[in-house]
Amino acid sequence: MLGFKSHASYTLDDLSMNNPDMVLDMLNTLRTQLTPMARRELAQLRAIKQADCESKGLEFTDFYDWDLAYYKRTKTECTHNIDSTLIKSYFHVPDVVCRLFALFEEIMQLRFCKVDASVWHPLVELYEVWDTNEFVGHCYLDLYSRPRKYANGATFHIRSGFTRKTGA
Which residues partner with 110 through β-bridges? Predict the structure, then answer.
């Protein structure tokens, strides 16, 4: 295959880690160093959940994947005396979106153009995404909570497809 032992070798050829063995060595080193820290943090989060359950008169059963974000936030707020709601007040959403789009434009040469279109809710914004003069796709921003909307931060990929080169 073009003189390479594998697709991984071909893909990595022009990168600083130019062979799969180097990547695997790095990943194994990271795993060795990070696993003890992850286990300690998980034990701390389990203890926080157990104390939370006891304070509410609930039986502690186990620490589940879906507990992770809540108890990490709880730990951060308690340990560092941080109020995430207060922090949010310093980040005006339109300014953050504008600066993120500017960052994407600078780093990836992508341009975001707001589209005045009918979407599923008045607070949802639609943007066309362009790479130089080539249409890449659409980006829907549905940033605000409301009743019957999925409550956690999430990214959902929408099937790509358009009929004309203009993106229409």
Answer: 131
pTM here is 0.52
Determine the residue type at 78: C
Nearest to 165 by CA among 125, 130, 117, 127: 130
DSSP state of 161: -
What is the CB neighbour count within 10 angstroms for residue 49? 22
Residue among 136, 126, 135 nearest 97 (CA): 126
CB atoms inside a 10 Å sphere around CB 112: 20
CB 70 within 8 A of CB 52: no
- Structure confidence by residue, pLDDT tens digits, 111-152: 999 999 999 999 999 999 999 888 888 889 998 888 888 777
Note the pLDDT tens digit of each residue in 37-55: 999 999 999 999 999 999 9
In the chain, which residue ranges form alpha helices assigned H by DSSP? Answer: 7-12, 20-55, 68-80, 84-88, 93-108
Other Cβ atoms within 10 Å of 162 Cβ, number: 11
Q: Is 113 within 8 Å of 136 (Cβ atoms)?
A: no
- Check residue 27 and give its pLDDT: 92
Give one word for 137, left, alpha or beta, with left for phi > 0 and alpha for psi -120 to 50: left
Q: What is the pLDDT of residue 149?
A: 83
